[in-house]
Amino acid sequence: NFMLTQPHSVSESPGKTVTISCTRSSGSIASNYVQWYQQRPGSSPTTVIYEDNQRPSGVPDRFSGSIDSSSNSASLTISGLKTEDEADYYCQSYDSSNWVFGGGTKLTVL
Amino acid sequence: QVQLQESGPGLVKPSGTLSLTCAVSGGSISSSNWWSWIRQPPGKGLEWIGEIYHSGSTNYNPSLKSRVTISVDKSKNQFSLKLSSVTAADTAVYYCARTITAMVDYWGQGTLVTVSS
Question: Under an 8 A CB cutoff, do B45 and A50 touch?
Answer without folding.
Answer: no
